[in-house]
């Protein structure tokens, strides 16, 4: 069945972003903020990618469900995403777990995070719901996924990545037929099923789902009445529809947005220190796999009003330089050298210091003569003069959080302990 509608389906859709998770594998980076609120790419937060995809796709009704340590996330959303206007039939709702259903109940799972806000959703009356995870880095046109959902008359359409088969063991995997209909959904299988047209690849769930709103509401109410349910899309809702309805896979490659500089479909879960560091440092490549300079698909965020970056001093051994690096506004590189590093807003790097493969979050101060290599520095950290990190693995592991890949995460409490010794 091919839809005869010509107007964009996105105008009749609501995007609902699930942004309540901590992301515990990011360790101390999520001690005070939820994973979707973690900084990424020099200016943005991780959640800005899902929100920008929705906005650029033409969706003008958005809800964000928050839970774990949500203040940093909510403040960012209020500052950076407050331009939606009700008189244009636009809306942007921040939806913390607020005891709307029960006086003792937080969101129990991803499905419950939608169920508890059914009245708000139904008041807007969207025809379609696009359910999104708020913690991945990618560019995608949801209009194309909505179109497939309507054309195939699906009950649910599941966004899927094509990954090498044996790399899919950590995902929920779709077993599909020749028409991309999902015949079974297997959570973290030891032996993932291959795709009919690419047997060496498997289809892994991206945590992106499209429903007709009425159908989704019926499913959520049914699930809420089931005492054995864990209230989760991946564990409960989707398997039930696969068994009792029509579930269809949507291949990310069909709707991935690429600039002329991007060859591959780019999607990253930056859920570990190593993955987070690598995805940020990858942006320093001459032609990175993710083009954040694409004006046709901008990544929206809270744009702070700050002065430009500044590089000062020009003496041998004390020259403000940056090679293959990204430096945000309000940074001052004072007689220091950066190589393959990414600095967020408001960083100060003092004389005789050198940074290599460093990801430095906002408002950090690097003292004189520090040498830092392969590090992630949390917001507001003051690096003491002469500190050396990234050259002695055993010493680094005693003082800081050192990952399996050899990346050191540095936070202010770690520095405080070091200085008190």
TrEMBL record:
Site annotation Could play a key role in the communication between the regulatory and the substrate sites: residues: 67, 106
GO biological process: glycogen biosynthetic process
Catalyzed reactions per annotation: alpha-D-glucose 1-phosphate + ATP + H(+) = ADP-alpha-D-glucose + diphosphate
Record-listed alpha-D-glucose 1-phosphate binding positions: 107, 172, 187-188, 205
Residue ranges constituting the Glucose-1-phosphate adenylyltransferase/Bifunctional protein GlmU-like C-terminal hexapeptide domain according to the UniProt record: 307-410
Primary enzyme class: transferase
Molecular function GO terms recorded: ATP binding; glucose-1-phosphate adenylyltransferase activity
Short name of one Pfam family: Hexapep_GlmU
PROSITE patterns associated with the record: ADP_GLC_PYROPHOSPH_1, ADP_GLC_PYROPHOSPH_2, ADP_GLC_PYROPHOSPH_3
SUPFAM superfamilies hit by this protein: Nucleotide-diphospho-sugar transferases, Trimeric LpxA-like enzymes
Subunit field text: Homotetramer.
Its job: Involved in the biosynthesis of ADP-glucose, a building block required for the elongation reactions to produce glycogen. Catalyzes the reaction between ATP and alpha-D-glucose 1-phosphate (G1P) to produce pyrophosphate and ADP-Glc.
Protein name as annotated: Glucose-1-phosphate adenylyltransferase
Native source species: Mesorhizobium australicum
Gene that encodes the chain: glgC
């Amino acid at each position: 069945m091919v839809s005869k509608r010509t107007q964009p389906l996105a105008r009749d859709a609501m995007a609902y972003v699930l942004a309540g998770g901590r992301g515990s594998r990011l360790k101390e980076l999520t001690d005070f903020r939820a994973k979707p609120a973690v900084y990424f790419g020099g200016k943005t937060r991780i959640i800005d990618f899902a929100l920008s995809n929705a906005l650029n796709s033409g969706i003008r009704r958005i809800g964000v469900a928050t839970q774990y340590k949500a203040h940093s996330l909510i403040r960012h959303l209020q500052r950076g995403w407050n331009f939606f206007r009700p008189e244009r039939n636009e809306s942007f709702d921040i939806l913390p777990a607020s005891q709307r259903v029960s006086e003792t109940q937080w969101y129990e799972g991803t499905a419950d995070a939608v169920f508890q806000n059914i009245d708000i959703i139904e008041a807007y009356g969207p025809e379609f719901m696009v359910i999104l995870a708020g913690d991945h880095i990618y560019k995608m046109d949801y209009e194309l996924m909505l179109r497939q959902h309507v054309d195939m008359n699906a009950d649910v359409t599941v966004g899927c990545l094509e990954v090498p088969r044996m790399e899919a063991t950590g995902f929920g995997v779709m077993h599909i037929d020749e028409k991309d209909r999902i015949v079974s959904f297997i959570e973290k299988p030891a032996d993932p099923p291959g795709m009919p047209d690419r047997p060496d690849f498997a289809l892994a769930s991206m945590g992106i789902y499209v429903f007709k709103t009425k159908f989704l509401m019926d499913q959520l109410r049914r699930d809420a009445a089931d005492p054995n349910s864990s209230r989760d899309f991946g564990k409960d809702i989707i398997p039930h529809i696969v068994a009792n309805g029509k579930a269809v896979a949507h291949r990310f490659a069909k709707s991935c947005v690429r600039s002329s500089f991007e060859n591959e479909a780019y999607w990253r879960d930056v859920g570990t220190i190593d993955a987070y560091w690598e995805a940020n440092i990858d942006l320093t490549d001459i032609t990175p796999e993710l083009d954040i300079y694409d004006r046709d698909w901008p990544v929206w965020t809270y744009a702070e009003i700050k002065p430009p970056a500044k590089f000062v001093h020009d003496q041998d051994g004390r020259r403000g330089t940056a090679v293959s690096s990204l430096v945000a506004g309000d940074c001052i590189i004072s007689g220091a050298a950066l190589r393959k590093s990414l600095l967020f807003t408001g960083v100060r790097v003092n004389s005789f210091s050198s940074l290599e493969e460093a990801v430095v979050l906002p408002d950090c101060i690097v003292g004189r003569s520090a040498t830092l290599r392969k590090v992630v520095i949390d917001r507001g950290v003051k690096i003491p003069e002469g500190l050396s990190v990234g050259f002695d693995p055993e010493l680094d592991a005693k003082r800081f959080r050192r990952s399996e890949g050899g990346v050191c995460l540095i936070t202010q409490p770690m520095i405080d302990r070091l200085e008190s010794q």
